[in-house]
């Protein structure tokens, strides 16, 4: 260990604060205003160097946070910092000399590859480490691979020079989006929590839904959706909100398995919900070279259908199991808004800047963060407000919280670089498309399984970047709309969070409920069933992605709502009264047929009749339930 006068904590605080300050200065174009020309890659090298230094100072060999830094980790941190600061300083010369392959680029590339890979192993786990490592090994032996996956011959020196330095590899789009845009949104979220926004949104969810049937679970769904849409991590969302909502659900009458599953599914859905979508929205906009507004608009209705299914399911479970409304201690929406109305201002600024003024996402986040600082210095919520001390802590927490994401997107840059230099990306697309022929449904099914498997154990940004490089091109090549293809891979990549055997979000919830992790994961798949079929719906029906005329959008949204509602009622087995197995199976079958899955043969002819049948059946069941209630009341009075 290093001496007792260990300066790790203050050093990490300085480095983390520097990350945030550098991001702010970059986004207000401070270098340009001062007459200094700096390449984006120089800025990225600075941020990667800071992130690697923090990673090795803060986390031990097992990835656990440590109190002191050992000599070995301290040495790695120093080397990574020094080499990347040199790269940031001399990047223009290095880029100019790259065709001549100088030893300096070999040094930079080697240090970047080794330091990032070990950092990923410590912080993101063996899954991502293994996937990226497999690509690195492939690149070394690509010319010896038999068949159609044969690639270009690369020497180890050429490989590390390209992967660890080139602007088309590590210093490419994923790292740029992470360090320029996502960092500011994480800062925005941290400021919101520090100012009391977490308590405000929890209280708002309790006041809005707590008095209804199954109110405790609805609080979880609403609260987790609000937090998850800006948190950037399903697991951290479970841990943050679950410690409040899961015990609340258990006290309300939900089983611990259902409570854990509901929290996991609600938190995972936040990664699919605009405005931030776990950073995927910004990455998607950059990958597809379209506006953020287009991505957020396309993702809106699928996210609404997802949460409609979850919300309806918790309501029906409450009805089936006779779960009473929650005790919210007289809390009302008016009371919560009266005390915390100032939190509406930053969100109004964010949404107005993004969707009305069409400002750059980074500028919108910076403006919103400034709004939080101003309103929170002026007003408090339940005694909580920003101070200079908490503001400083927010800078540190933002920087340290970004380390994992920066490591993941840097590693994803390795994969993108290897796909480019070896030609593997093109080969994989051809192999997958040729394997399924013209069968789009089979291609989607195989792609869904691949996305779930590759997404296991990875954060949202890493999942999306990896799948956008490996799977999405095959879907686009098969004729699927590019936004639909990229949302498809994102949905199934995120479903790895609730799909055993890994199911990180479900397992995190199980640690709070102290229930069997596998059982919680399976229950989460039941609660989140809609997410496994909605991607097929919006691939088949572009109107669900807000494409086409308003009449078509309204019709298909209505069909989707009826279909999702019918299947959900069939799964729960309740609609006013408990349903027999025959009725449950009938509702599920009718619901599936109602869903606008246009690529199924003859499906279009059945959508509206099936929807009408569902509506009629739902009305009949509801009337029968009411008649039964009146009969029971009459018997009790006599």
SSE map:
Layout: H1 8-27, H2 30-33, H3 40-58, H4 71-89, H5 91-97, H6 103-123, H7 126-140, H8 156-163, H9 173-194, H10 197-209, H11 215-231, H12 234-252, H13 256-269, H14 280-288, H15 292-320, H16 333-340, H17 344-356, H18 361-378, H19 388-422, H20 424-436, H21 440-455, H22 460-470, H23 472-477, H24 482-494, H25 504-513, H26 517-527, H27 534-540, H28 550-572, H29 581-594, H30 604-637
Helix pairs in contact: 1-3, 1-9, 1-19, 3-4, 3-19, 4-6, 6-7, 6-8, 6-19, 7-19, 9-14, 9-18, 9-19, 10-11, 10-16, 11-12, 11-13, 11-15, 12-13, 12-25, 13-15, 13-25, 13-26, 14-15, 14-22, 15-28, 17-18, 19-22, 21-24, 22-24, 24-27, 25-26, 28-29, 28-30, 29-30
The overall average pLDDT, rounded, is 88
Count of all domains: 3
The main sheet comes to: none
Distance between the termini: 80 Å
What portion of the residues fall into strands of 2 or more residues?
under 5%
Q: Identify the overall geometry.
A: globular
Q: What assembly state would you assign to the polypeptide chains in this entry?
A: single chain
**Total of DSSP H or I helical runs spanning 4+ residues:** 30
Structural class: mainly alpha
Helix content bin: over 70%
Total DSSP E strands: 0
Radius of gyration: 26 Å
Residue ranges: pLDDT <50 for 5 or more in a row?
1-5
Order of helical and strand elements: HHHHHHHHHHHHHHHHHHHHHHHHHHHHHH
Function: Part of the tripartite ATP-independent periplasmic (TRAP) transport system.
Pfam families: DctM
Membrane topology: Multi-pass membrane protein
Subcellular location: Cell inner membrane
